[in-house]
Protein 1
Amino acid sequence: MTKYLLLILLPFAIYFFAPILRQPGKRRAGLIAVHAVLLTYLAVFVLNRSPLIFSDELNVIQFIHAAKQKLHHWQGWFCEKDFIPNHFLLVDTSYDPVLVPNPEGDQEDSTFVRITDRKKLTRLLDILDKQSERIDLVVCDILFGQPTPHDSLLNAALQRLAAKRKLVVAYSENETANPAFSLPPEARGRATEELRGDIFFSHTLQEQELSSLPYLMYRRLNDIEDVGVFSETRPNGDTDWYLNTFIPELPFSDEERLLGNAPNQPSKTWFRMIMDDMLGNRPLLSRQRAEMTADGNGPLNLGYLLTESGQTDLAARLEQKSGPYRIVFIGSFQDPENDVHNTVFGAMHGSVILLNIFYELQQGHHHVSLLYLVMLLAGFWYITRVLVRRAVRVQPEPEPTASGNWLGRVFDFLRFLYRFVFEEERHVWLLLILVILADLIFGHIINIMGLAIYLVVFDALLRFFSQRRVA
């Protein structure tokens, strides 16, 4: 709503302030500063909620992401490749489904729905409850909307872990409530898919006092109880300012067979081939799975953990985890037809997206520092200043006389190209540099196309009203 109101009021504001912008002085400098604050507000709080309208937006974000990964790969610090093996024991439910009657099914639609075997899941949770002293958190990325005969026993197993404050269960307001489950609100994390158009783009941490599943994991492991609108308070009293909605970078990709083949996206364009080459060193869970399996740390199937050898393996792996916390994450990781979502960086399983967001939160990429805001303010102030000074210029600069020989014409063309790219379109390059610095230095992705569209409209209106005032 804010962005639409701003676009409606923008022509009136420029028309009203055009006389002030034409006169150098403190009043013009003040308006430029106010506009820089407005652009910072748009970039930080508004445009990260906007839908992706053009395919170019995907290309810009993918290019910055791939370039950052390539740069960081050379330096060895793009992301902690051992983050998942050191902290997580992944339990895959892909090979343990059952069919239950679909209450909404009919002759034209499926009369059965495929869900995780809840009898097996109950047995696993009982095993984890006995090992709870060596587990910091059990995360269950499974929705329980469909009723089954095993729900009461499963609810009791979940309640035992919840009583120990070691349980986080996925919750969706779109899922039909199952009366057999009565979990406390502090054990439920929102896992609703957030789409911008048809693509997962940004993530909201708090919505109607309910934390998202990754943010609830983050709060539990960091003992954050007091969460405000834009701030979170740690047990020692330190307060961090954060973005309630931010664009996660998703550094860990999904299976190789899913990478680059997201729905509604061409699989092999020239840009896609360049991205595939630049993303060649991207940490893939499939590659990690092979490395983890070779080291005895690979993900385990739900059914295997119910066997005697599986329980022995579970205890040994929990003992081997070297991170400061140990999390058992239960979800779907290998089924190509279940819980797969379209993202800016390719198709991913929902559980992989949640793991990525949790990693981003642990890295503090949702936090907003004063230095980040100062950088944005300075950058947007300079961009606004460039646009205003160019728009209010009364006399156009004289065109250079065309040279007679072919070498002179080449220099004339290069001079024209330089002026067009680095003078007429200087604000575009400045905006691109600002967005790249925000990602490289602070880990924040900015919706560059939203800002670019706004600046194009702002520049056109500013020139139009400035010329009318001169006439």
Protein 2
Amino acid sequence: MRRIAGVALVALWAAAAVAEPTDRSRDAIVARKVIEARGRDHGELRLVRRGGAAVVQTLLVTRSLKRAVARIRDKEAANWPQDGHGYGASRVYVEAVEEAAAQVLEAPRTDRHRRLLIEIELSGNAGRIALSKPTTRAGADGITLVTSEPITRLDVPCSWARREIALIAGDAGLDVDKLAPLPGCAGP
């Protein structure tokens, strides 16, 4: 019965998917860290203030997008056990990332790297996942996000987004308190 309820939640959130542009004009990066594996840079993890919202951005710029997605899938499985609270939202997140990565992989290449922007946003009492195809360039302070083409945007429970932001920041060794105060969650 629990599995059926989880599948129903996945279908509900998936039905709410809307690919709309994200206004990043008020973004302030408060912390960033290079994503590195096997001696190569694969993008950046960023903690961002967007007005009153707290955002964790995973900006992947990598030749190994399938490996990066597999790593996200493994971390989510470890962080959100199948019988625990938040599993349904985590599953929606992983499926959305897999679908977005498939779209990126199908698109024509402009260079050797594939790019995917993953954002988890906590604003007021709302949690959101936004996935985009970014255009980037190397900047003095790291990767500069030039533009992005929305792929999907999903609403998720506030409590899941809050914990997910803390888990991702902590795993990267970034101080989530730089986003303080994190918006609270009155409901789910």
Protein 3
Amino acid sequence: MRNIITLITTLTLIFTSQVFAATELQNKLDKLVQNNDIDGVERLIAEADKLNGREFYERNSDVRKIFAEFFTTHPDYVSFMHKWLKEKPDSINAQTAMGWHFYHIGWLTRGEVLYRDIYYKARDEMTAYFQEAADLAFKSFLKHPTFSPARDLALLTSQHAQVPQSKHALVDSAMGANEDKHTLDLVLRLYSPNWGGSLRMQKKICKDHEEMLLKEAGYTADMCYADQVLSNARIINSKALTPELIKWAIGIMDAAPKDKMLGARWEDAISIRPDREEAMQIIVDILPKRRDASYYYARQVEEQLNKPGYYKEYKRKQKKTIGTISVDV
């Protein structure tokens, strides 16, 4: 179960703040890919990335939306990426796009079973795909550490492959290179107690980056830490996760703006809050804002709150509307 939840958490991190309704940006990319216009895709990425800087964090998320489209197995995109990398082997854009593709294949190969139940040949293939993704990610990241799609992928693949930097060196590079909240979320995941970290380390990271959190996302260090405490309440094994700490974190969450700490609110609703109707109402508020690895909770909302058609409508909205395959994440 822990490995399945890890899969859900990882994929949720990838798509945080990326809504997959058809947009002008995504339609442009789709058209360029269909026409095998490599230079056009490079220009589109450059345009999205030119505002790279803290003050443009929200607008700069466009470049992440572009690279999320390469997290796919669609044959048109796969064919385009191979051609792109062959023609421009030194392009950090081509390297990063292909890295996201391999990372996606790695997760598809892994499946949703417990790690110990993965067929040994599938496990070997999964490892090989993650290594390919990591190699490409670090080629780009080490050349251009401020490039957020490569930085994100370097942080993610470092948990599954051999990489050229230690965890601490990688984090120093990532957080010293035009840091933002999404990068910090990935760093905090690296320091989860389940990945050799601790709640104490996560608390220190939140405190060290409070200035950025306040500026970029309106988060205090306490909100950041409470989010980690509650978001990991089911999946970490730590003596530090005491009832008193959980109670403190819930108090911070309840006092925070309703559009903040969505991971904590989600965890509270599905595993902590005893009033199921109240919990379902929380889930109704959060479901449209995040993507999950199954539609289980949308079905629960429909059944427990007597909302006919809710599951079908939610599922329809979660389907990607441009050329890539539909993936529950």
